[in-house]
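Q: What would this chain look like folded?
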Amino acid sequence: MEARYVRGKQGLQWILSGFYFFRMAPLNWILLCFTYLLIGTTLGLIPFLGGFVGILTAPVFVAGIMVGCRQLDLNGKLELEYLFYGFKKYTASLITIGGIYLVGDILITGLFMLRGGDAAVGMWLHGKRFDETELPGVMSSLLSASLLSLLLAIPLMMAIWFAPMLVVFENMPPLIAIRKSFFACLRNLFALQIYAIILFILGILSAMLYGLGFIVWFPVAFASAYISYKDIFHYEQEEDTGSAPDSEENRKESNQTDER
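A: My prediction, written as structure tokens:
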């Protein structure tokens, strides 16, 4: 299975399709996302181990939500039980993905602290003060540490983005799923940038509405992630049903990209 290239405007289309998926079963979506967030919040309250367990099991829960998206897509039904599908099948592979992400996250955090982020953490959490001569150096170190962390975090997210779906839908081993996810994101970097920017703006607007907008934002984010996977990896289904009128043009652009 190979990922295809899609045009940048597909990033917007994924968001719009996410809204459509939310409209199909709004109450079930709210219940599903609220339950997942409640579980994540509860794990976060457990000292030391809670955060690690939350990261390890995140791909398991996300895979379950993606299975729910597929069932909603095929049968028009979304049930809460799909959230726990990853604990019934592919559990080891999904936790492996979570473990790889956890290791990467720890390494990035360590580099952030070594590059000067520890000073910022001390200033924010412990009220540590710096005099006027030290502050420019601290801010410069913080900026370089933040940029380095961002440059490393983006490839890590690319490697994880489609991996849970490739495991549960294609029965791929976790390492192969991570590799295919990374190169699929790399090939469609512009569309994913458009998608991320729009999702970020919608997140800001959701927060401005006293956080109530997140009732819709989370379901749209999950559903649009599923749509992006389907568009990139299972575009042949859309071509067969005629539901993607611009698929031929996308395929031509993909061939031109390969020729280059």
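Residues 10-259 form one domain.
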